[in-house]
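We close this part of the discussion by returning to an individual protein. The encoding preserves chain order, so positions in sequence and tokens coincide. The sequence in question and its structure tokens are set out directly beneath this paragraph:

===
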Amino acid sequence: MDQLWANRAASAEAAVVKRHLKRLWGIPGTQLGVVAWPAAPRYRRFGTWHYWWQAHLLDNLVDAQVRDPQPERLKSIARQIRGHSLRNLGSWVNDYYDDMAWLALALERAGRLTGVHRPKAEAKLAGQFLTAWVPEDGGGIPWRKQDQFFNAPANGPAGIFLARHEERLRRAQQMADWIDETLIDPETHLVFDGIKGGSLVRAQYTYCQGVVLGLETELAARSEDPRHAERVHRLVAAVAAHMAPDGVIKGAGGGDGGLFNGILARYLALAATALPLRGPGDDKARHTARSLVLGSAQAAWEHRQTVADLPLFGAFWDRDAELPTAGTTEAQFIDGAVNSSEIPERDLSVQLAGWMLMEAAHVAAPVTTYDEQ
């Protein structure tokens, strides 16, 4: 793997570890990520913790362990999982299917790639997704329980998990087909956010594109059905045309939006490395995906700030990062979503996305082409 990006990923990891990782309530064998830096006292006490941000922190730790296996990081992965369960009051589930899907993905990868297994948790979460499938109501699975909003950020990651977990390919394919039939913009070929009451919610977010790319790539790799690879080709081209000006993935600020561009980078890297090479169209999609990841990573690195010799990434990778301060307005949780801090770089989500991008660049850098097979 490319050493330059390995070094940058290691620096991004070290920055998050130093600024954000902390034992949960002083309990031995636990950790979580403090959701802001500099942190208000309630953040350091984990009065606020943001379930799905912690799932992505776990996923990033798995990335780092694959990149550079270390016994201490394995312990960190186990501490993160235990901290998550304890902070969630001894449970793996909550009311949001998208939250649970992110955790399920991270747990599955932790078991498969690092040997830190939590099979009962995976099975519990799989059951949540399988029973939430309600085509009779217009879904898909809903965004949250007792809700009629069916969206890509719930169905995409849940579908990826089900494809990997005991290879529930039939349901994963049904979810991919539902997205393709319901949420694809016929003009741009991007993915709409969701559908509510039979009406499209027409917002187009970077992470929606990412999770659908991940699902279709996973299915292309696990089946011979050509429709999945064709959808990857179409969506990679749409992302390049509409969501990556000058080859750099668009940012969405801080709060929950801080993770959006990182998620797209993660699944572009998956497309760049895991899409089966069965023809020139696959080669083109992989090359484009790789270029978007590396272009975004180079821009994010060039526009970073440096604090105590460690990087601090910007919410927008094509702009200079701003140093956060403790006196500015903090992120707010409103109606099921976390809004940005006044300075987005303060939010853990933004720094996780920067780290995620560096890990994605490390994975995507040495891509094989169709002609090299």
About this structure: The chain has a mean pLDDT of 96. The beta strands are 21-22, 32-33, 149-151, 194-196, 199-201, 305-307, 310-312, 333-334, 337-338. The first helix runs from residue 3 to 20.
